Structure formats: structure tokens, C-alpha cells
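Re: weekly structure request thread

Next one in the queue (177 aa):
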Amino acid sequence: MLAIKSPVKTTEQTRRFKPNILPCRINDSQPVNATKRYWSEIEHDTGQKVSYFRGRKLYGRDIKFDERYKGVIVRETDQTLKLGKSSRTSSDNSLEDDDDLEDNLKTTVEEEDDDSEEQETVKILQELGTFDTVCVWEHEALPTTDDVVMRNLDEWVKWSHALHDYKEDAEDGAREG
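Done, posted below.
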């Protein structure tokens, strides 16, 4: 299980990112000083984006998320939480705010491990920034709705709506899926 720790609102500001999904495989994960020499996108009057990567012409299309969704850029940390059955509530297993997360971090460090109770480890990820738009790139042509990335994003939104949207029943106020 994963938990995302947001930056403290008063001291840290959340950065805004715009990820690009390129049609290539990169075998290195070290930081790169991506200057305009290596990446420069040009937007035409038609809204079409064009760029060159290693001599190949790429066409891009922005995908804007629904206002109910946001993307998050995270960094893995060494912090973990150990949640036992007594740490959870019956209706919600998530930590709603940073205060709960900090309290649980302090509590788990102070508590001794109890072998009689099953514990679940929660890995903490640090939020670095957010995004609400992704640019999908394709070789020599604009990405279409048949593109794997475009199709997966569309299916993800549909699944999310199916799982999380509900309608109130006018008669008894019961939830419908």
C-alpha cells in the first residue's frame, strides 16, 4: 500500500508540471539538464505541436484531465507506516491529512512490534508537484484515439467514473453504482 504525503501548505508550494509521453524507451533514469537544445516544442496556429527528438519528428496532442482528477509527481522515501487492525477505522483505511500521517509516523516509531497482530506496511511517497494535462507524442503523425496511451487514459477515466460515481435514489436515499 502507498500513502502520498503532500507538502506543508504554508512553507512549501506545490509545483505544476506538464508530463510528456514519448514513443521511445529510455534506459537511464539519471537527471538530465533538458535545455532548449535537446527539447523544444513548437505549437502551430492549428493547435498542433511539433518537436524533434534525436532527429525524428514528433507530433503531440494535449490531454486535459477532468477537473475532478489531478496527476501527482512523487518521490519514493525511506519512511514507512505499520498499520495494524487497531489502527484502521471500519469505513476508511486512508489517512486524510498530513496531521494524521505525522501522528501515525510518530506512533509507529514509538510502539513495539506486536507479533499477535497482523501489520500492513505502508510506503510513504513525497509529493513533488501536480499536473492536469499530459502531452502524448507520436512519430510522424498526431496520436489518434486508437493510440495505446490515449485509449488507456480514456479507459482509466471510465473505470474511475464507474467505481466512484453514484446517484442518489429519490425514494430511499440509497446509493446506486
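Residues 87-96, 106-113 have pLDDT under 50 and may be disordered. The first helix runs from residue 98 to 110.
Next request, please.
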